[in-house]
User: What shape does this take?
Amino acid sequence: MAQPEMRLLDRHGRIVSGDEWVGLADDAPTAGHMAVVVSLKRFLAERDVLLSRDFRLGVRLDPNEGPEALAPDLERISAIFVAFPVFRDGRGFSTARILRSRYRFSGEIRAVGDIARDQLFFLLRAGFDAFELRDRDHEAAFKWAQDSFSVVYQPAADHAAPAFARRAHPPSEGQF
Amino acid sequence: MKIITANSLLTGAPIYWAGTGRWSAELSEALTIDPADAESALQQASAQSEIAVNAYLVAVEARGAPVKREALREAIRAHGPTIRPDPGRPDPGRVPACLPDQSPDQSPE
Amino acid sequence: MYRYDEFDETLVRERRLQFADQVARRLSGELTEDQFKPLRLMNGLYLQLHAYMLRVAIPYGVLNSVQLRALAGIARRWDKDYGHFTTRQNIQFNWIRLGDVPEILEALAGVEMHAMQTSGNCIRNVTADHFAGAAADEFLDPRPYAELIRQWSTLHPEFSFLPRKFKIAVTGASHDRAAVQLHDIGLHLKPGRDGSPVFAVFIGGGMGRTPFVGPLIRDELPADALLVYLEAALRVYNRHGRRDNLYKSRIKILVSALGADRFSAEVEAEYQAMRTESPPFPPEELARIRHYFAAPPFETLPADDPEFQALRARSAAFDRFCRTNLHPHQQPGYASVTIALKPIGGVPGDCSAAEMEAIATLAALYSFDEIRVTHEQNLVLPHVREADLFALWEALHAAGLATPNAGLISDIIACPGLDYCDLANARSIPIAQAIAERFADMDAALAIGEVKIKISGCINACGHHHAGHIGILGVDKQGEEFYQIQLGGRADEQARIGTITGKGLPGPEIPDAIERVIDRYLALRLDSDERFIDALERLGRTPFEEALHHGAA
Assistant: This one.
């Protein structure tokens, strides 16, 4: 469902070709798709039906929508699409962190919207693992974001060992 | 009448549109533009984004001095802070001070 | 003080390289100004009226002499030989060229400094009591916690795109010198019931367009739970703070809209959930940090150095300085010395390169190499032996840095105002200069006693006018500068927002108006121990407001 001018990248910065996900309007039929993304509103209205079908289900969360309403069903949801309608709106970072650390969500968390290289470092740390990037030179952009910092101070969803863990012990598995 | 001013990308210093693709560091060299042509001139000036940042129009009187609301701000931009001798801008006395004993009318220089 | 290890050093170096790359992309035309602006702001680089302004972070206001010398060097090489210390304990350079910034950042990194997060909608440089680790009234040194906050908030994975900027202040003393109740989060470190350290957490204070004193949101937070609690509070703000209106996006608006009780309950729920989710912050890290803030090797000295007392008795000028510019130290035989950057007729907070170098030398000689920056735009030598005070004072005097007005009416806070700032509506500095000149007689000023005048050139309140005993706000009325006066604000543990009085006055009338208020105070005070703010609170503002607006002949 990536827009034509966007490129979909995975957590390693590789281009994902043939995105299987199809974004559905709230009134569009679900038949004939392998993987569909619906709004939170539609999910809540049609939950039982959507969860019983044999397609893979994704839910799109807008910035004002937290993941709490999905909590009971997260095991049956394959992907969460977190929307960033504008660059400066950082609510989606909290959404991803709550999904990973509170609900231990292990499916895909995809950042969609106004995503540029300057957010990537933070998105990766917050638990996103798919990105619809607007930078034209997306691979360089991804590498730039990934290589910028070799030191972090906080434990986060990317499991990078924070400085305090590396100080206390030699860098090992770093389970923080 | 209007003039166009901006900040230099490299130095951040105030600069003034002198017409025909030229920016000047001197307010006195600013090109006065008829209000009817102002918007298109501003577009032309703004296109030079490798030289000028945040270009905008300033209303001026016929002799080219900014008027009204912008007058003080533009005077400070043009002549530097009013509060300390500034080696880079030798003429702070031209700025209207807000206190009587600092006003240019009464100061000997 | 804290010293970088390889990790801190690497991060600052990597951030510098990243920003150098961003500057190069801008200069090559690869980035437009619209794309570059948020990136430069994240690194403290503003475009002001005359030039770029670079705001350098001074974490919790602590410097050593090498760092202060490096700041002087930057002023000499890349600016016009001076810098400006701000109400956030930072320093700003006013005359910076864009292409020089990478080199300046390199010079800063060489002395463990940077400009990260001194602007932008992120957690800003944490501030603290400028007498931390020195003040006699301190329960516990807040600096280890401030350093912990510095690290935690640097490039935070969740809180780097907040609705608006976010300021945290911390104190560990009974008298609040860090204005904690006027910050987004204010932390007061104090003994808990069993004597172990706890925080009183104030959230939602602030000045600006809509000033609030922050309500107490959590009392007795165990100190070792600080980061989890901060994380919870920031998450509630990041998710629920308003993003539709720039003027309503600070956390104070959220706290006020929800009410302190509901906000507190939301944070508490998030905090309780988070505690079970992530491993606790290892106490060894706090211990490691605390190690850096161990007291310097103080000598065991008598409380009142007899030689010091004798010198005070001999030199009236030295005694005069000691009365205002010393602060009681927790170690007997030592004092903290305020170097007021408020010479009469000077620019509040401005410091020349030569002055910085002189102060650096004196800090190395007399204060275990330490300097502090205060939110009142002064510098402090925190640990000076009483026996050295006279020599220090003589040296300060020779350098023109011994103005004996700390805490007095001419010790004025002023933002840069329209002389420098792109946001300002009116000038602040000339007003501060005119008031200081009116009260230039130091004996008269001492007789008046403590008066805090704070001046801002626009509603953003960088000059803390809401918290001034006398607050002055510059406004623009059809191209003319007017100044609105507020009375009764205070930034200490009894924080209060000042009340606006009458109509704004033109600049030239301000010194007379202030003098009338002070004359009224001198006429009405019970005795010389009753400070201006005490008299104002006892009598109400009416008599002072009358003097302000109707006292003119």
User: Anything to note?
Assistant: The beta strands of chain B are 2-8, 14-19, 22-24, 52-59. The interface with chain C takes residues 7, 9-14, 49-50, 53-54, 67-73, 76-77, 80-84, 86-88, 97-100, 102 of chain B (CB under 8 Å). Residues 1 and 34 of chain B are 5 Å apart (CA to CA).
